[in-house]
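Usage

Read records sequentially. Each one opens with the input sequence:
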Amino acid sequence: MAPATIREATPADAAFYAELMSLLGYPASEEEARNRMHRLDRDGQRLLVAELDGRLAGIAAMQVYPDLIHDPPTCRLVVLVVAEWARRRGVGRALTKTVEEEARSAGCGWVVLESGLRRDEAHEFYGALGYENHALEFVKQL
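and closes with the structure output:
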C-alpha cells in the first residue's frame, strides 16, 4: 500500500473540503467552502490535503499563533478528517505527522486540538499518537 501524499489545498479542492466538513457535522456548500478557504490565509491558517491512490482522501487545517502563556508559539490542529473510504489506511497519521513537522519548523512548543465529546474513535486515534486530554472546552453561541 502506497503512503498518502500531503500537499497544500487549492481552490479546486473546495468541493472535497465541503464534503468532509459535512461528515463532521458542519455542512457547507462548495461556494461557502471556497470562501472559507480564501479566508484562511488572512488568519494564518493552512489547509492541507491528503491524496491516496490518486484520490483525495483527507484534510487537515493548522494555525500557528503566539501564545500568551508560554514562550514558544502554539500550533492548533483546527480540523482533521479523513474520507470514509480511506480510514485506517494511514491518512490521518500522515496528515498529523505533517502538521507536527510544520509546527516544529515554525518553532512551536506543541500542537493542540479540540475534539467533540462524542468522537470516541478520534479520541483513541489522538491518544495512540501521544496526545493527552488536558482541558475541558466551554462554548457559548452568540
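Summary fields computed downstream for this record:
- The two ends are 46 Å apart (CA to CA).
- The chain has one domain: 5-128.
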